[in-house]
Amino acid sequence: MPHRPLVFVSGLTFGDYLLWNWSLNGSHTALALVSGLTLPPLVLACLWLVALTLTRLIAYLTRRSLARPAIARAGRAARRRSRGRLRKGPAVARPATQATAVASAGAAAQDACDATASARTPTGRLAA
Q1: Of the candidates 60, 45, 57, the residue with the CA atom closest to the CA atom of residue 13
Q2: Which of 25, 42, 68, 79 is the 20 to 30 Å CA partner of 103?
């Protein structure tokens, strides 16, 4: 989330406030009137952006704190599964089984592509 609008509007608000204060003390009535009329909308925009930023920060921290236990539970479950695998069977047979499964999945995908290619009409004419 970019903070550039908040910084920009805050800077404009602070600068407008300083201009308004200086023009009131220096009896520059036209400048005091203009800066005084632009100050309330700038203050409202600044407060709105601060509230929006705080709301987004709270939502981010809440989402992060809720996700942290789920990640920890998933990590614990994965460690339990891996410990159970090591106890149940030989470690040498597993990589060969996984390689066979990957190879058979690749062969099945290639067969599916060949089946769709052979189903096309050989003449290249469109069906009516």
Answers
A1: 45
A2: 79
Q: For residues 37 and 19, is the Cβ–Cβ distance under 8 A?
A: no
Separation of alpha carbons 54 and 46, rounded Å: 12
* Model confidence, pTM: 0.50
Burial of 66 (0-12, 13-18, 19+ CB in 10 A): exposed
CA 46, CA 12: separation in Å to the nearest integer? 9
Tens digit of pLDDT per residue, the chain (128 long)?
Answer: 688 999 999 999 999 999 999 999 998 999 999 999 999 999 999 999 999 999 999 999 988 887 776 666 667 777 777 766 655 555 555 555 555 555 555 555 555 555 555 555 556 666 65
